[in-house]
Specification:
Blueprint lengths: L10 H10 L4 E4 L2 E4 L5 H18 L4 E5 L3 E4 L4 E3 L3 E5 L11 E2 L4 E5 L5 H5 L1 H6 L7 E5 L5 E7 L5 E7 L4 E4 L4 E4 L10
Parallel strand pairs: 4-7, 8-9
Antiparallel strand pairs: 1-2, 1-5, 3-6, 4-5, 6-8, 9-10, 10-11, 12-13
Length: 189
């Protein structure tokens, strides 16, 4: 019995397909993976978080973008669409299309049952290869709960779990402070 080898896509092939596609796909080691649709809670938590961060970034050299923007983690050769991320300073694009950013300071992912292990594990490892990446915030969908990872000066990461609506999260790298309950304002728990 013989098996056919899987033909892997180059980055250029992926981008050509992805830029023409109706639906988004992530790219990992030569393979494309269609992104699943999110729940209403997922969308509400991401939107409320984007709004709260965006309000605090006015007049600052940082900007927040949502899941329509692609991020390329060059060291891992991975393209992802984080739920939202904050980049500071001049934008660093992959190419002249200006639809893929190369670096970020903060990434926020809303955890889904089907992807939460990937978000906490391999995906976090890929993100850590980004030069300016300093904070990773994971938000639960089923409870007012966050996991906050902060890069230290020596390159290590400190983890804090935060629970409850009255808890505050400080995103020091971008000068934002968030009350956890505000990020769940429109979610139904």
């Amino acid at each position: 019995m013989s098996s056919q080898p899987i033909k892997l896509l180059t980055v250029e092939q992926y981008l050509e397909i992805e830029r023409a596609a109706e639906f988004r796909s992530e790219y990992l080691n030569g393979e494309m993976f269609a992104m699943a649709g999110g729940s209403i809670n997922h969308g509400m938590i991401a939107a409320d978080t984007l709004i709260r961060i965006g309000e605090q970034l006015r007049g600052k050299p940082c900007a927040v973008v949502g899941s329509d923007v692609r991020l390329f983690c060059k060291p891992a050769n991975v393209f992802t669409y984080p739920d939202l991320f904050v980049f500071c300073g001049p934008r660093k694009y992959l190419d002249a299309e200006k639809d893929t950013l190369l670096d970020t300071t903060v990434i926020v992912e809303v955890l889904s049952p089907s992807t939460q292990n990937y978000d906490r594990g391999e995906k976090f490892r890929y993100y850590r290869g980004l030069p300016s990446f300093a904070e990773y915030l994971l938000l639960a969908q089923d409870a007012i709960r966050a996991e906050h990872h902060v890069r230290q000066d020596d390159g290590s990461w400190v983890f804090r779990e935060l629970n409850g609506p009255d808890v505050w999260i400080e995103l020091k790298s971008v000068g934002c402070t968030l009350q956890l309950g505000d990020l769940y304002e429109h979610a139904e728990l």
